[in-house]
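Example 9 (inverse folding). The structure is encoded as follows.
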């Protein structure tokens, strides 16, 4: 915060296109719109989640991640370097967080130090709903949370 200050910084839209109205809306509801950034964000999220699932399930690195998560001492006896696996896992998580931050800032038009707090809470809730350590379950938990939020917004009007 010392360098960038606490004020939000303007962030350019990476992909710009006029929003597409999906519904016409009505007297009580505004029209539902879809933006190109939203479409790319959903597509990128699906691609990243599929890639992460394939990485964890079908590669040596993924097998090492699962082994270290289960029991680091036994993984070491089997020839896995837990420190390297943990470092790579955090690096992959950081890359995904940066990608999510760029897409989120592009969608909202600004970036601030606190913009990831609520999405982090929602991601943790989705992971708990789907089962900690279960990538597909976390994805399903996120979809359920999104549907619940959308239904709640629709009912509150």
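The amino acid assigned to each position is listed next.
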């Amino acid at each position: 915060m010392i360098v960038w200050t606490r004020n939000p910084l303007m962030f350019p839209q990476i992909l710009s296109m006029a929003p597409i109205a999906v519904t016409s809306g009505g007297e009580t509801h505004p029209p539902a719109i879809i933006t190109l950034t939203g479409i790319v964000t959903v597509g990128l999220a699906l691609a990243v989640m599929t890639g992460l699932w394939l990485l964890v399930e079908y590669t040596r690195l993924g097998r090492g991640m699962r082994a270290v998560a289960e029991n680091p001492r036994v993984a070491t006896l089997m020839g896995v370097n837990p420190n390297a696996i943990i470092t790579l896992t955090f690096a992959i998580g950081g890359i995904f967080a940066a990608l999510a931050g760029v897409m989120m800032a592009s969608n909202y038009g600004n970036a601030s130090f606190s913009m990831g707090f609520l999405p982090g809470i929602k991601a943790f809730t989705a992971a708990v709903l789907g089962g900690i350590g279960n990538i597909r379950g976390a994805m399903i938990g996120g979809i359920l949370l999104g549907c619940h939020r959308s239904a709640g917004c629709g009912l509150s009007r």
